[in-house]
Design goal:
The chain is of the alpha+beta class. It folds into two domains: 4-132, no CATH class; 150-220, Herpes Virus-1 (2-Layer Sandwich). Helix content is 25%, strand content 31%. The chain contains two helices and 14 strands, in the order E-E-E-E-E-E-E-E-E-E-E-H-E-E-H-E. The strands form four sheets. A four-stranded mixed beta sheet has the order 1-2-4-3, with no helix packed on it. It is rod-shaped. Residues 127-154 form a coiled coil. Residues 167-209 form the RING-type domain.
């Protein structure tokens, strides 16, 4: 089974005792193999939020590979650590390792080299940008859903109005004007058009709820 699943890629490990530097090979688009000099694979660490894979081989050196390109990006040492025997984790620009085996273990946390830390910041910013993009998409979807709901309300109002006995003004004709400001369909075209000539407030206000009606907020159906 793979040691890690990193951004959809399976990372396998194999032992090559004579190696002094680990090798990082891309077998296919979804499979990566790391060769190290030990079968204790806890000396390898990565996460989905990191663009790097960190590898140690019971020596002072920590090897950093780019997960995307499989290239060796950096080799660094932690001051005062003679042998990195276990990589605990990498977080917030720091790496935590264990030195020693069995009962004689020392836990050490140190800052990453600046060039690696800056790349982590870039990766973090990329994740933030992705989150912002997702939020924008969610907002657009919500807006579209609101428009659909508004149209459904209009259709329902129109259906209800068609079942009404008459226009609220003339009490004779069927309503065939809908006001977008309040979504009421309660007057007929004739009464709406005659309102300005007889001084009625119908042109300015909905006769059902009194909402101010704008010139562009009416439609004939």
């Amino acid at each position: 089974s793979p040691k890690f699943i990193h951004r959809g890629k399976a990372i396998y490990c194999c032992e090559s005792p004579r190696l002094t530097i680990p090798t990082f090979q891309k077998i296919s688009d979804n499979v990566i193999v790391i060769e190290v000099s030990t079968d204790e694979y806890d000396t390898i660490f990565t996460t989905d939020s990191s663009p790097f894979v960190y590898v140690a081989m019971h020596s002072k050196d920590i090897f950093v590979f780019e997960a995307r390109t499989t290239k060796l990006r950096e080799t660094f040492q932690i001051e005062g650590v003679g042998s990195v025997d276990y990589i605990v984790g990498v977080n917030n620009g720091e790496i935590t390792v264990c030195e020693g085996m069995g009962r004689d273990i020392h836990l050490v946390t140190a800052e990453l080299p600046k060039q690696l830390e800056s790349n982590l910041v870039c990766a973090s910013q990329l994740n933030v940008n992705k989150e912002n993009t997702m939020e924008e998409l969610v907002t657009k979807i919500n807006n579209l859903q609101a428009e659909i709901n508004a149209k459904d309300t209009i259709i329902q109002e129109m259906s209800t109005s068609r079942g009404s006995p008459c226009c609220m003004c003339c009490t004779d004709r069927l309503p065939n004007i809908i006001f977008f400001d309040c979504l009421h369909a309660v007057v007929c075209k004739e009464c709406f058009n005659e309102a300005p000539m007889d001084g009625s407030t119908l042109y300015k206000n909905c006769p059902k709820c009194g909402t101010v009606i704008k010139n562009s907020s009416k439609i004939l159906f």
